[in-house]
Amino acid sequence: MELRRGGVGSQAGARRMDGDSRDGGGGCKDAGSEDYENLPTSASLSTHMTAGAMAGILEHSVMYPVDSVKTRMQSLNPDPKAHYTSVYGALKKIIRTEGFWRPLRGLNVMMMGAGPAHAMYFACYENMKRTLNAVFHHQGNSHLANGIAGSMATLLHDAVMNPAEVVKQRMQMYNSPHRSALSCIRTVWGTEGLGAFYRSYTTQLTMNIPFQSIHFITYEFLQEQINPYRGYNPQSHIISGGLAGALAAAATTPLDVCKTLLNTQENMALNLANISGRLSGMANAFRTVYQLNGLPGYFKGVQARVIYQMPSTAISWSVYEFFKYFLTKHKLENRTPY
């Protein structure tokens, strides 16, 4: 579904779906490029939000079983029955011993959070990126602008996703007492209060701001290399998204381990660390991880995290770019002529 262009001179039109303000020179265009180059200079806010919501829901739905394995593999003191050495082996063992649907427990609450969170995430990123690129780098694509835009988008995304993450991860843990999202919410609210849903928020931001900065900068850089005219090219979105997600995931695994500990409040681990009550704060989480497992503890589940994030970001970007292209073109075709 790649839309090809007739020459370098068509670069300005080819960049329009990306919201860039750069101008190219005039040049001849082939018929295949005309559809794309006649699209408006930037997609609407509603288009970014709809495309983002679809990308978030599909990304988390498809990769949810691997996410369940990642949560368990990051356990600091797992039950002997929940000790796993590989993602594939873990999935087989969970299905065999706990039932076919067990890796999907908590999926509903994740989908409810992912839709609005990703809608705000992509809409904020696109608008901030366009604004900051105009300020920082009038003649091109600024990696600084992309990094800042990704960081700002993360603030909105995590405010919605953090409660969903808490519920999801507690339901994913081995021997979880929670059989439904509603019962988990009621139990957490009743025993730990509203603050429990945001106990890991600062850690989540500390992890996701560098994650998303690395992610967006890498994605935009790779797009410049393999899709310089920034057309709708599914292969380039999949490759760029996957590699960007893998790099960002590996680099931020230590923060993800701490976030998981704060979200799950893993009882056996906290007892071994002689911690009574609830663990809170990123610094305390870092100390507890080191106390229990040393430096290797910060990279527990790194394999599962990369295996999860690489296809997740590839799915997210490819679905997002498809819906952004499709919805913008559809709106253009349905415009009432003057």
UniProtKB/TrEMBL annotation:
A single GO cellular-component term on record: mitochondrial inner membrane
Region Disordered: list its residue ranges.
1-40
Q: What are the start and end residues of each Solcar repeat?
A: 43-131, 141-225, 232-326
Coiled coil region boundaries: none
The UniProt entry, under Pfam families, shows: Mito_carr (PF00153)
Where is composition skewed (Gly residues) in this entry? 1-10
Q: Which InterPro entries match?
A: MCP_dom_sf, MCP_transmembrane
Which coarse location class applies to the principal site listed for this UniProt protein?
mitochondrion
Q: Which GO terms describe its biological process?
A: iron import into the mitochondrion; positive regulation of hemoglobin biosynthetic process
Give the Gene Ontology MF terms in alphabetical order: ferrous iron transmembrane transporter activity
UniProtKB keywords: Ion transport, Iron, Iron transport, Membrane, Mitochondrion, Mitochondrion inner membrane, Repeat, Transmembrane, Transmembrane helix, Transport
What start and end residues bound the annotated signal peptide?
Answer: none
User: What reaction does this enzyme carry out catalytically?
Assistant: Fe(2+)(in) = Fe(2+)(out)
Subcellular localization, as worded in the UniProt entry: Mitochondrion inner membrane
Membrane topology reported for the UniProt record: Multi-pass membrane protein
Task: Give the family from UniProt.
Answer: Belongs to the mitochondrial carrier (TC 2.A.29) family.
What does this protein's UniProt record list under function?
Mitochondrial iron transporter that specifically mediates iron uptake in developing erythroid cells, thereby playing an essential role in heme biosynthesis.
PANTHER family in alphabetical order:
MITOFERRIN-1 (PTHR45758:SF4), MITOFERRIN-1-RELATED (PTHR45758)
- This one is known as Mitoferrin-1
Native source organism of the sequence = Moschus moschiferus
Q: What is the lineage of its organism?
A: Eukaryota, Metazoa, Chordata, Craniata, Vertebrata
